[in-house]
Sequence to fold (106 residues):
Amino acid sequence: MSLTVHPHPDGSRDEFQVMHAGLQIGSIKKMAMTSTEKWLWTLSSLLIGAPDIDISGVATTCEEAGTAIRESWDRWLDWAELSERLAPPSRAAEPQVLSVTISKIE
Fold:
């Protein structure tokens, strides 16, 4: 699965959610207090990581922010020795039999 960028649920055109497998792992937001257009990107779901991997930054365009967040995400995956994989095809839930033996210890 790859990262996808979605408009913020409140309808803002200046804020986006960065998603992976249905989970928000970051955001991209236009900085309103500057005289020139700048975009803040943040990876918000990384609990641990290498100290040399940026988890936030500022870019001049929304597209550059998307590229930067993707590069940091890829670097973190490499550092954590993880990889993205395609989601398995959805299949109907099959009943599972669970067998439990309970015994009294005397």
